[in-house]
User: Which sequence fits this backbone?
């Protein structure tokens, strides 16, 4: 049973990955990425990680890919990349060799090696608590500080995104492509008048 | 819940390795910054898959907690990265990663 789920999820994942790296149109890449993410979510469920599967679908497939698509639409959807062009000679061949070496090496290590380490105290298959409840307990006791730090990180990310998207600087805009027309903030205009 | 640990961690780790290699290849060959970003997400997901497989193999829930943190950091990274990409594309529409050589000596 799990083998069937694994094979199905793995095929979806790999086809999605191939779609991401071969599609000429970025929109097709983003939609292939959804396939991979859903496949990974299926594999999470097959490994009893229901909470992570839900988060995977909601955060990755729901929010991140929609953000990707939003940016693609914002900067122009008609621009598809010519994947035949190779600006650096033999870049693609070198990347293929490197990718193959990486794949073969990782698979060899995984196949030959054995999983070491001591079994943890927080058991995955704890029948007393559901997966979500068990993760919540570990997260809010053992990893509370890390959890709080990630909330700070998210705030910083939001502030950074707003700063990147909002501020206009003289050095930031070149004459040929002035970009979109966002009016100067009113506060700055008033202070400029006052200083004159 | 499906049958308990019928497969073991090995197939998941192999799949994670293949996904990671595919993401690396895409990151090295594609020139559209957005698609390079998507390849980065592929690599992050491959690592997440390995984390969950090993968490089940070792019976340790902390592997899944690590995946949770990876997801949070990935979300923050995507927000900032896409902000940078949008501001780049505002300056020079149609830029590829090869055009961004402003800091080249």
Assistant:
């Amino acid at each position: 049973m799990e083998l069937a789920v694994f094979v199905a999820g793995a095929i979806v994942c790999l086809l999605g990955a191939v779609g991401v790296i071969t599609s000429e149109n970025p929109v097709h890449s983003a939609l292939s990425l959804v396939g991979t993410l859903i496949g990974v979510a299926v594999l999470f469920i097959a490994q009893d990680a229901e909470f992570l599967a839900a988060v995977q679908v909601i955060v990755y497939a729901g929010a991140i890919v929609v953000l990707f698509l939003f940016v693609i639409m914002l900067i122009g959807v008609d621009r598809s990349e010519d994947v035949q062009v190779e600006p650096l000679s033999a870049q693609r061949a070198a990347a293929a060799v490197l990718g193959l070496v990486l794949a073969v090496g990782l698979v060899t290590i995984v196949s030959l090696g054995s999983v070491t380490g001591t079994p943890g105290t927080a058991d995955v298959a704890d029948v007393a608590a559901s997966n979500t409840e068990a993760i919540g307990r570990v997260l809010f006791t053992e990893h509370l500080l890390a959890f709080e730090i990630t909330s700070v990180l998210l705030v910083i990310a939001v502030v950074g995104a707003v700063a990147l998207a909002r501020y206009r600087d003289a050095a930031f805009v070149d004459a040929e492509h002035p970009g979109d027309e966002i009016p100067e903030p009113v506060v700055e205009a008033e202070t400029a008048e006052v200083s004159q | 819940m499906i049958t308990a640990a019928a497969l073991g961690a090995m197939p998941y780790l192999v799949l994670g390795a293949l996904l990671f290699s595919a993401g690396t290849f895409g990151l090295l060959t594609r020139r559209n910054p957005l698609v390079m970003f998507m390849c980065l997400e592929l690599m992050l997901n491959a690592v997440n898959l390995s984390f969950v497989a090993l968490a089940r193999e070792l019976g340790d829930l902390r592997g899944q907690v690590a995946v949770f943190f990876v997801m949070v950091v990935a979300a923050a990274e995507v927000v900032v990265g896409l902000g940078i990409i949008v501001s780049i594309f505002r300056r020079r529409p149609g830029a590829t990663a090869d055009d961004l050589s402003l800091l080249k000596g």
Remarks:
- Chain A is about 70% helix and 0% strand.
- Chain A touches chain B through 96 residues (CB under 8 Å).
- The first helix of chain A runs from residue 2 to 22.
- Helices of chain A lie at 2-22, 26-46, 50-74, 91-112, 131-141, 144-166, 186-195.
